[in-house]
Amino acid sequence: MTSLSDPLTFSSGAVLKNRFVLAPLTNLQSHPDGVLSEDEYRWLTMRAEGGFALTMTCAASVQESGVGFPGQLGFHDERHLPGLSRLAAGIKRHGSLAIAQLHHGGLRALKNPKAPSADEKLKAEGMTIDEVHASRDCFIEAAARAERAGFDGAELHGAHGYLICSFLSPELNRREDTYGGSPENRARFLFEIIDGVRAATKPGFSLGVRLSPERWGIDLMEIRHVAQRLMREGKIDFLDMSLWDLRKEPNDEAYQGRTLASYFAELERGQVRLGAAGKIMRAQDARDVLAMGFDFSVIGRAAILHHDFPTRVAMDPNFAAIATPVSEAYLREEGLGTAFVQYMRTWKGFVAEAA
């Protein structure tokens, strides 16, 4: 039986010292131009120090026009490089893999939202073929920049309606060229990025993909097929499934009667490692992820509440995250800056109201 303390090796050669991965968490803490801030540096390096085997950045921008959040960490310009180099070194100093999550807001971008096809409801413009190619190349350039900064690897954000996800969606992607129509064509954008990153980086650079199997017009069986293809082709090191709730059943009634997680845990994965995120708040939840057949746990809210969640679980097999709401002072002790605390106030019941 696999243990949470067991190491895990990627095909790139990188070794995770345990089965805990920090989820890519939006925190709005960096400077308006995407340059790393002290608050973001502290937030991430505290998680590395707290025992996470892999510390992932927030969704970080690959193209200025694709910025999706205020205060979003940037990988799209050379001016970001000094801060990124410092961040990578700070994470790795604690024996944690430093992974950049690369993101384009697409139809959810702050300015001039773009999508594979025009969307009046979401006020997004359809992309020209030149814009598709430019955004693809920006992902590749950002991965190369991450490698130059000293990051151990990158994860491509293909979930939650952002640009890569919107190409995968039959509802959002109604193109009639080679990037639309069939499932294979709609997946072309993602697979071209993967090929481009592999060509632009060295063999030891780890590469992962995050997928979400529901919402934003995503078809569960199509995403399952994409996941299987990713693992069968073996060009990535890990696949990170954002499931919302580890134990939930699919939204689509046709596939209910079993957990959403089970549709992915059963796939043939070759040398690709498979992880899952979804309300993992207790030591038992993390063990359940492994028992379900996944290789690692991706920790989100519990990592906000406890910078040292992996260390606490190692010390106490019955550990559970503190109940919310918690005070602002508590969150500051856990390494959240002002912007992050204010963002967490938008999560219902997470931050206690001041007395």
Would you identify the CATH architecture?
Answer: Alpha-Beta Barrel
Q: Helix coverage percent of residues?
A: 25-40%
General form: globular
Biggest β-sheet: strands ordered side by side in the sheet: 3-4-5-8-9-10-11-12
Beta-strand segment tally: 12
What does the radius of gyration come to? 19 Å
| CATH topology group | TIM Barrel
Relative strand content: 5-15%
Description:
By secondary structure, the chain is of the alpha/beta class. The chain has one domain (8-321): TIM Barrel (Alpha-Beta Barrel), CATH 3.20.20.70. The chain has helices at residues 38-49, 81-92, 129-149, 163-168, 183-186, 188-200, 220-233, 262-265, 283-291, 301-305, 309-315, 328-333, 338-344; strands at residues 8-9, 15-16, 20-22, 54-61, 97-103, 114-115, 125-126, 153-158, 206-211, 238-242, 273-277, 296-299. An eight-stranded parallel β-barrel has the order 3-4-5-8-9-10-11-12, surrounded by six helices. Strands 1-2 form a two-stranded antiparallel ribbon. Helix 1 links the parallel strand 3 (20-22) and strand 4 (54-61). The longest helix is centred in the middle third of the chain and has 21 residues, at 129-149. The N and C termini lie far apart (48 Å). The model has no long low-confidence stretch (mean pLDDT 97).
Short précis:
The chain has helices spanning 38-49, 81-92, 129-149, 163-168, 183-186, 188-200, 220-233, 262-265, 283-291, 301-305, 309-315, 328-333, 338-344; strands at 8-9, 15-16, 20-22, 54-61, 97-103, 114-115, 125-126, 153-158, 206-211, 238-242, 273-277, 296-299. It is of the alpha/beta class. Strand 1 (8-9) and strand 2 (15-16) form a beta hairpin.
